[in-house]
Amino acid sequence: MKLHVKKVTRTDVAKEAGTSVAVVSYVVNNGPRPVAEATRQRVLEAIKKTGYRPNGIAKALVSGMTQAYGLIVPNISNPFISSMAHALQQEAFKYGQVLLLGDSGDDRKREKKLINNLLQRQVDGLIYISVDRHPHIELIQESGTPCVMLDRVDAKLNVSAIIVNERLAAFKATQHLVQHGYRDIAIICGPRDMLNTQDRIAGWRDALQQANVVVHEEWIFSTDYTRTGGYEMTLKMLKGKRPRALFATNELQAFGCLRALSEHGIKVPGDLALICFNATQQSQFNVPSLTAVRQPVGKMAKTAIEMLKTWSGEARECEFEFDLQIGESCGCTSIVKE
């Protein structure tokens, strides 16, 4: 038997409060006309008693605000991306906003559809990480929707962005391996056509060249930013001359690498040192703990939300410093921190 529940309306609230529907609307929408405090309290009590829920869509049409931001990411299964999404949701919630997630699955066509979908929902702003740093920014700019990119993009696009210098971060990570005395250093990177991959390879190359260390082009192993990618490229690496150290440009790749090395009885860092990019808390609790570049996710999320809340239409770029989180995988010793 299907149970039909009558939807509570503003008319029901007005009847319970002993006032007009217009007055109920003024209370719900905080205007446009003032309501006496005693009357306002009666209306609020009536709302509570009847269980009335304001129509969010109708309210958005009146106010022009949906109380929602959109978040477009390449792949939410990436621990770094999911940690960023969590931090952004926490910050948005402080302002009474919800975060609508769009996961493009590393697909540019799907990314474009998600952007159009969120724009049609008239979100109050977009936070956007593109698949390959070639964002569909023209769609967003034509709509007039505030947007903050969480990645470095072409300055000519005139878009607000929160960035970390990934080339410098990759340089520092590789330099750390060099300072341990390692000379044979390989790299497992992302797809070569992605701009962030190119930045990370360039940083790796910079560090080796500065130290007069031979750059072995055959030790550049390009794959997806996944555990499987890291695992398969490590197996491929082990078929040739083995390097003494390895820079994995993604935490998931590093986890896949560790699995492959373990299967072949290769100890980290005793037999092969390892360092990676974009650490999350998982890196600290891994065995061995990973030495890795770590971005200030909390600070970046706070700034992104603030940029949307104070949107003026002018493009702003905010660069954050990164940390090199010292673990055991490079040959250092570390203490796990909260």
CATH fold description of the largest domain: Rossmann fold
**β-strand amount:** 5-15%
Structural class: alpha/beta
CATH class of the largest domain: Alpha Beta
Give average pLDDT, whole number. 89
Number of DSSP-assigned strands: 12
Strand arrangement within the widest β-sheet reads 2-1-3-4-5-11
Over all CA atoms, what is the radius of gyration? 26 Å
Distance between the first and last residues' Cα: 53 Å
Gist of the model:
The chain has helices spanning 10-17, 21-28, 37-50, 56-63, 79-94, 108-120, 137-143, 166-179, 195-210, 227-238, 251-263, 281-285, 297-309, and strands at 68-73, 98-103, 125-128, 147-149, 160-163, 185-189, 220-222, 245-248, 273-276, 291-294, 317-319, 323-325. With 338 residues, the chain is an alpha/beta fold. The protein starts with 9 loop residues before the first helix and ends in a 13-residue tail after the last strand.
Describe the model.
By secondary structure, the chain is an alpha/beta fold. It has three domains: 10-54, lambda repressor-like DNA-binding domains (434 Repressor (Amino-terminal Domain), Orthogonal Bundle); 66-165 and 297-321, Rossmann fold (3-Layer(aba) Sandwich), CATH 3.40.50.2300; 166-294, Rossmann fold (3-Layer(aba) Sandwich), CATH 3.40.50. It has 13 helices and twelve strands. The chain has helices at residues 10-17, 21-28, 37-50, 56-63, 79-94, 108-120, 137-143, 166-179, 195-210, 227-238, 251-263, 281-285, 297-309, and strands at 68-73, 98-103, 125-128, 147-149, 160-163, 185-189, 220-222, 245-248, 273-276, 291-294, 317-319, 323-325. A six-stranded parallel beta sheet has the order 2-1-3-4-5-11, sandwiched between helices. Helix 1 crosses helix 2 (21-28) and helix 1 (10-17) packs across helix 3 (37-50). The longest helix is centred in the N-terminal third of the chain and has 16 residues, at 79-94. It starts with 9 loop residues before the first helix and ends in a 13-residue tail after the last strand. Residues 334-338 have low confidence and may be disordered.
